[in-house]
Amino acid sequence: MIIKAIKNRCSVRSYKPEKIREEELQEILEAARMAPSGSNIRKTRIFVIQKEETLKEIAKVVALATKAGHADGISKERAAAIDPETHNFFYHAPTLLIMTSPEDSYNAYVDAACVIENAMLQAAELNIGTCWVNNVRRTQKDEGVRAFLRNIGVRDDEIVIGCVAVGYPAGEMKPKEQTEGHEVIRV
Question: Is the pTM higher than 0.85?
């Protein structure tokens, strides 16, 4: 039941080092690809990073960009406290999904958000941990981050919408009971 996956999904910030099985990754990607999109344009691209050296590289360039003050929405005080040699915005997950869309796509953010949510719900169904991470989006204008993105195949006319850290949780997944928020108003 989909409601079970919705209720069990939670942000995981500590992962085991081993990669998820290829069959599980394919199920997550299939669910992501089946997400709806405005006018059915389906232009979100999903970049899958699993190579350890590439994961370390993106963690470092994002931390350097943040420390340099090139991260939208992160205070100078918080940025100054980051150590680019050790900080990892992706929680050392063994898989990172980066979702991009054409910059001129009218529905880029909502379309990619559906892709991200489908991926996270399928992972929850498989008891795989995820965490939606925005730091690549926040730093994508930084030259070091942009160079990294170009190197993995992100086009200059694309923007990063969000990322999903994916892996087996290092501990128990503990969803919080949601009792407030997202108010429903019947008219």
Answer: yes
